[in-house]
Each structure stands twice: as structure tokens, then as C-alpha cells.
Design brief:
- The structure holds two protein chains of two kinds.
- By secondary structure, chain A is mainly beta.
- Chain A has a domain of 240 residues: Beta Barrel (Porin), CATH 2.40.160.
- Chain A contains two helices and 16 strands.
- Chain A has a 16-stranded antiparallel beta barrel.
- In chain A, strand 14 and strand 15 form a beta hairpin.
- Chain A is globular.
- Chain A starts with 6 loop residues before the first helix and ends in a 7-residue tail after the last strand.
- Chain B is an alpha/beta fold.
- Chain B has 14 helices and eight strands.
- In chain B, strands 2-1-3-4 form a four-stranded parallel β-sheet, sandwiched between helices. A four-stranded parallel β-sheet of chain B has the order 6-5-7-8, with helices on both faces.
- In chain B, helix 11 links the parallel strand 5 and strand 6.
- Classes of the chains: A mainly beta, B alpha/beta.
- Chains A and B meet through helix 1 and strand 8 of A and helix 3, helix 4, helix 8, helix 11 and strand 6 of B.
Chain lengths: 350, 337
């Protein structure tokens, strides 16, 4: 990948790079700002391409781009920050443009309060708040897809968060969103909103080990009925100081009640362990279980994922999924992914 | 009795006035150490990058948001060092006082001479390059002197009651730094400001000769003086400021480009570079694997040193002056062999 260059050329280039005045050169003139000096929005593009081997999902090509996600972020004024994520994706062979998120965020009310308005990812668990390109595996788990849709719950509404003024992290989020076309929450009445409450807390077990625990409750329309959802999310991360070693255990569990006469409560859960076994190489093992609402269908998935993150802007991934269900024969999927990002530096989210 | 009541009232008011504590977030330990030195008992400091960790790579942990939520002041390096976590932490803290551009948000990179500012187009083909310049500014003691004084001013704006003490503490820190750098006698005789000015203009020795004070030079400056222009290789481009201040000549890095892991081809090139150009030492921080430095060292016979790149990254490097003590003593010791 790296061309061999003569040592003399390298030495000359390095000498030029290091050729600076050797000291501070006296008092400097007033320097320019050291962070983004432009009022243009930060723009990022995530390219997600892949190939599917083994059993195919209906209508899916062997190799194709999966999604290109455009991200925009900028301060609107001293009070408001705007963000938008627009994807161009292949769905069932067709190219679809979708606004994944587009919202304004106030985070300087003081007193620990912040608010978002617009199309947002619902505060249900932790994984649902991520975009697919931020996951350590391909596709949202069944436990989320079955109740919230293929890419989780995204809807127009408002969100208010309160960060408790305590030494330990406690955050409470309340949202009202107009989610009306999901597997669990659906309605033909535009006035009917889904209410979501999420609480999360965080534990530091020394410098290397930390964990976050969250709980969700949501209630919203299921046509003429009221559906409800509650669940727990948990993530534990191990980050020793040494570069090239890390581990993450994440798990979420949900119970959903469609609220319709005669329908049962359903359960879904997943757990994934990701380990950086050598610098930039990550192995992920995921177990996933979902009971599909208002049916008797149940499916399970076991996944093994190998990811090579060449830099934090580029990765190659291979994922094997073994899916069993009570409504279809066992399937094996083998997927390749090549994803890269240009533009604005990504946030190091927990 | 009236006198007693008056005295108690005055004492109580005094206690109330002096009870203010500034809550400060410092991104790296060298900055945290300066804030503690300047703020004394009037500050409560939370440092984000603690111990032997790469300051480029930490995550925006929710506990940082809690600490930032209570903070009066964010002290970061800037120059995009904290690009991955400053915004999410401040945004997640819901604390408008810390927003960039506010009185409670400081990037010390704005205050000091910045090196290696790229000219021309900057792309990621150049590696994890910082478009505003090399952010490792804390590894020049002169920069820390500026930062202490400027921080005292900013903290005095936020806590005017204790402002005089902050400024006094900063001055005292600068005086200790001057003595550590140039020696007690010279710092007293010539004065720190003048000495740094001469050093910044590469005229220190010449001016000392003119002042017939060359024999008074001691401290870090004197320890490193025999190794002026000595060639070294570093793992990451993080020793630029230290090397420039103490006259080391960094001729290459084990990383082919900033933030990119060493490749076999590049390591081979560095081995040849070391053999051809008379490099004497390899330097790296403790959070990188020593595998490549060990390999290069074995092939070339040039020793490598794993040294703290920040306060708190090794035993003994407990504050800014101790950090430079560790660096100067280890490097000069290794080069003397």
C-alpha cells in the first residue's frame, strides 16, 4: 500500500518539514483562531459499500453501494446548533433519498437543560440513537428492527433532556414524536404522538473501565389502540491507555405490548461483544433474538464480525450471520463492507 | 460585645467572599497542573486525559459531561487536538458558559507560538494533520510560562475576588520555571523575561557572553546544551516543541504520517535514515507499542526512550516542572552515554 521511497528523498522531505525557526522567535503576533474559523457548516460524507455472498435477501444485488450519508452541522447563532443527516440508499433495488435526522439543538439554557426539535432519532435505548454507519456490525439488531423499523425510530418531534447537577452522571430525556409508520407505533391520525422517556446513568470504574445503564419507556398509537414499550440498555467499555487495545460489551432488551385485543407482549434482546485484539483489528460476536409484534413469529441471529479500521475514517468489514426462525428455513449470510468518511472529523461518542 | 459581633460579621463575610471555587475542566494533565498551580485552593480541576493516554483519542464519556455541567471554565489546547470530544462534551453538558467564544472557554493554542502550521492545501492524505498547527504546545516550557500568566488573567475575570492571588501564583510559577530552565543565579541576575527573549532569538549564549554571565548558566538549558543539534527520531510528531526549545533535531518519525501506524516499508526507511544520518536517540510516549522502536533500536544500536509526553504519564512527572525535569534528565542522561 505504501510505495518504497529512497531514504534520501524521505530525509530531504523530513528536513523541509522540520525546517522551522528553532525557537519561539520572540513574542508572536496575535494568532488566528485555532478551531474552525469559518461560518460554513461542517460537512461529512459517509460512503457505505458492500457485497453480499451466501443466501440473498430478496431483491438485493451481490455488490452495490448501500448508502451515502451526508452530514451537516453548524451553529445557527449563539443559542442554536443545527444538524442534518441525509442518506441516499439502495432499498430493494431502488435509490431512495431519506432525511435521517434534521434538527436544531439548544444546549445552553443552563440548569442542565437542553432541547432538540425537528426530525430526530428517538431516545429509545442506546443503539437506536446511532446511525447505521456508527455500529460495530451491519444492520440494526432484530430486537430493534422488529419494534421500531429497519433503521430504528426516527420521527419529527421535540426532545428535552435534563442533566442532573450531581457528580455522577444521571440524565433524563423526554420526547414527543410523530412516529406513525413503524411496526409497533403506527397511526393514521396525525395528531397522535408517541411519548418516550429515557433515563441513563454512568459509572467510571477507574480510568480504564466504564459502563452506562439506561431504561426506556414509550407509549404511542397502534392504530386504534395504545402500544407501549419498555426496555433496558447497557454498555461497558474497556479502554486501557495503550493504543490498540479496547473492548466493548453492549446489550439491550425490550418488552413491547401492541395493546390490541388478544395480542401478546413480545420480547427482543441482543448482546454484542467487540474486542480490539490487535491494533485496528476488531472482532465482534453478536447474539440477537426478536419476537415480531402481533404475530407468533420468532427469529434469532448469531453474527461474527471482523473489522479492520485502517484509520478512524476508513474500515473494511466482513460479517457472517446465521439466522434461524419459526417461519423460514435457516439462512447464512456473508457480507462485506467498505466504509469511509470524508469531511468533518467524527465525534468520539461514548 | 459590639466589637466581637463586628469582627465575626467581617470574618463571616470574608469567608463568604473567599469561598468561591472555580470548577475547571482541563483536557490534558499539563494544563490541569497549571490550573492547579495558578488557582491553588480556589479551583477544583477535572482532567480528561489522565495517565498514559493518547490525548487525540479519548471518548466523550458521560462523566465528563457531568463535570462540564458544573464547570466555570474549559481549558483545552485547541488546534483541533480535542476535535473528537470537546463539542460532544460541552454540548452534552448543557452548560452555555463553556461554549467556544465564551469567557469560560479557553484554547491555550491561541496564546502561544504555534509550530508546523501547514501551508497550502491540507488533506487527510497527509495523515491526521492539524490544519492550525502542531497541538503539542505544552512541551515547550516557554509556552507553559505564557499559558500560566494568561490563565491567571482569565481566571481573575471569572473570580475577581481571588484574581490577585491567581496572578501572584502565575508569577511565582514563571519564576520557578525560569530558575529551572536557566539556573537560579542567572534568573536572578538577568531576569526571566530577558533570558527567554534571548533564547527565542537564538542569542542566549551570545548575549550571556556579552553580559559575562555564561558561567552562571545551569538548569535544563545547561544540561541540554552539549546536545544541541543532536539528531533524534520520534514515534509521533509530538516532540516538536520540546526539540525546538532544547535544540534537538527531529529528523523523522516512526509513523509514516501523523496518526498512521508504522509500516514495514517506512520502518525500513527510518532504519536507513538513522544509519545514514547519525541519529542518537528514539523518543516515544508510553501509550504507543514499543515493538517498532525496539526493532529499530536492535537494528541500529540507537537506544529508545519511553518518556512522558504529559504530566502524569510516568512516575515523577507530577507537575509541569517535574515533567521537564524527567524529560531533560532522561534525554541528557541517555545522550551522555
Amino acid at each position: 500500500m505504501y510505495a518504497l521511497i529512497p531514504a534520501s528523498a524521505i530525509a530531504a522531505a523530513l528536513a523541509r518539514a522540520h525546517a522551522q525557526d528553532s525557537k519561539g522567535g520572540g513574542e508572536p503576533p496575535p494568532p488566528p483562531p485555532t478551531q474552525g474559523s469559518s461560518s460554513n457548516p461542517g460537512i461529512s460524507l459517509v460512503f457505505n459499500m458492500g457485497a453480499d455472498l451466501g443466501d440473498k435477501v430478496d431483491g438485493q444485488r451481490t455488490a452495490d453501494f448501500r448508502e451515502i450519508e451526508f452530514g451537516f452541522a453548524s451553529d445557527v447563532d449563539p443559542h442554536l446548533k443545527a444538524q442534518a443527516f441525509i442518506s441516499v440508499a439502495k432499498e430493494n433495488g431502488e435509490t431512495v433519498v431519506d432525511v435521517e435526522e434534521a434538527f436544531g439543538q439548544y444546549s445552553n439554557f443552563g440548569h442542565g437543560l437542553s432541547a432538540k426539535f425537528g426530525k430526530i432519532k428517538g431516545a429509545i435505548g442506546r443503539t437506536n440513537r446511532n446511525h447505521e454507519d456508527q455500529l460495530e456490525y451491519l444492520h440494526f439488531p432484530f430486537a430493534i428492527q422488529d419494534i421500531l423499523g429497519d433503521e430504528g425510530l426516527r420521527a419529527v418531534g421535540g426532545s428535552i433532556s435534563y442533566l442532573f447537577p450531581t457528580k455522577q452522571f444521571h440524565e433524563l430525556t423526554f420526547e414527543m414524536v410523530d412516529a406513525d409508520d413503524g411496526p409497533l407505533f403506527k397511526s393514521s391520525d396525525a395528531d397522535t404522538m408517541v411519548s418516550i422517556a429515557h433515563y441513563r446513568t454512568f459509572f467510571d470504574f477507574g480510568q480504564d473501565l466504564s459502563a452506562q445503564l439506561g431504561a426506556t419507556y414509550a407509549n404511542g398509537p397502534n392504530m386504534q389502540n395504545r402500544a407501549s414499550l419498555y426496555g433496558f440498555d447497557y454498555v461497558m467499555k474497556w479502554h486501557p491507555g495503550r493504543v490498540g487495545r479496547s473492548a466493548m460489551l453492549e446489550s439491550e432488551a425490550y418488552w413491547s405490548d401492541p395493546g390490541s385485543p388478544g395480542s401478546d407482549k413480545k420480547f427482543g434482546a441482543f448482546a454484542a461483544l467487540t474486542y480490539e485484539f490487535m491494533p485496528r483489528w476488531f472482532a465482534t460476536f453478536k447474539a440477537d433474538y426478536g419476537e415480531i409484534p402481533e404475530t407468533t413469529n420468532v427469529h434469532r441471529q448469531f453474527s461474527g464480525v471482523l473489522t479492520y479500521k485502517l484509520t478512524e475514517f476508513e474500515h473494511w468489514r466482513i460479517q457472517w450471520d446465521h439466522v434461524t426462525s419459526n417461519f423460514d428455513s435457516a439462512k447464512n449470510y456473508l457480507s462485506l463492507q467498505f466504509q469511509f468518511l470524508i469531511g468533518k472529523h467524527p465525534a468520539h461518542k461514548y | 460585645m459590639k466589637r466581637l459581633i463586628c469582627a465575626l460579621t467581617v470574618a463571616a463575610c470574608t469567608c463568604i467572599v473567599h469561598a468561591k471555587t472555580l470548577n475547571v475542566i482541563a483536557t490534558v494533565e499539563s494544563l490541569g497542573s497549571i490550573v492547579k498551580t495558578v488557582g491553588g485552593s480556589h479551583v477544583n480541576v477535572t482532567t480528561l486525559v489522565v495517565g498514559a493516554r493518547d490525548p487525540h483519542r479519548i471518548e466523550a464519556k458521560p462523566s465528563y459531561m457531568s463535570a462540564a455541567g458544573r464547570a466555570d471554565l474549559w481549558v483545552g489546547i485547541g488546534l483541533d487536538l480535542e476535535i473528537g470530544y470537546e463539542e460532544p462534551i460541552i454540548s452534552g453538558s448543557a452548560n452555555g458558559r463553556l461554549r467556544p467564544g465564551s469567557l469560560g472557554n479557553v484554547h491555550v493554542g491561541d496564546w502561544v507560538p504555534v509550530r508546523e502550521k501547514p501551508t497550502g492545501e491540507v488533506t487527510r492524505a497527509m495523515g491526521d494533520i492539524h490544519p492550525f498547527g502542531n497541538p503539542h504546545v505544552w512541551l515547550d516550557p516557554y509556552n507553559m510560562r505564557i499559558i500560566a500568566v494568561r490563565l491567571a488573567d482569565r481566571m481573575a475575570e471569572l473570580d475577581p475576588q481571588d484574581g490577585a492571588e491567581f496572578k501572584s501564583n502565575a508569577k511565582s510559577f514563571a519564576a520557578r520555571l525560569d530558575k529551572a530552565m536557566f539556573g537560579d543565579a542567572l534568573a536572578v541576575k538577568i531576569g526571566g523575561d530577558k533570558l527567554w527573549e534571548w533564547d527565542n532569538q537564538d542569542q542566549l549564549i551570545e548575549k550571556l557572553r556579552e553580559a559575562k554571565a555564561e558561567n552562571l548558566l545551569s538548569g535544563w538549558c545547561q544540561k541540554m546544551r552539549p546536545f544541541w543539534k543532536t539528531k533524534v527520531v520520534t514515534y509521533h510528531r509530538s516532540w516538536t516543541y520540546f526539540a525546538a526549545r532544547f535544540g534537538l533535531n527531529v529528523v523523522g518519525e516512526l509513523e509514516p504520517k501523523p496518526g498512521i501506524d508504522p509500516t514495514p516499508a517506512h520502518v525500513a526507511t527510518i532504519i536507513k535514515l538513522i544509519q545514514d544520518s547519525g541519529v542518537k536517540l528514539i523518543l516515544q510516549e508510553p501509550f504507543y507499542s514499543t515493538r517498532n522502536a525496539q526493532f529499530v533500536s536492535q537494528r541500529t544500536g540507537v537506544p529508545y526512550l519511553v518518556l512522558p509526553g504529559n504530566v502524569g504519564q510516568s512516575p515523577g512527572a507530577d507537575d509541569v516542572i517535574a515533567l521537564f525535569d524527567v524529560l531533560v534528565n532522561n534525554i541528557s542522561g541517555a545522550l551522555r552515554k
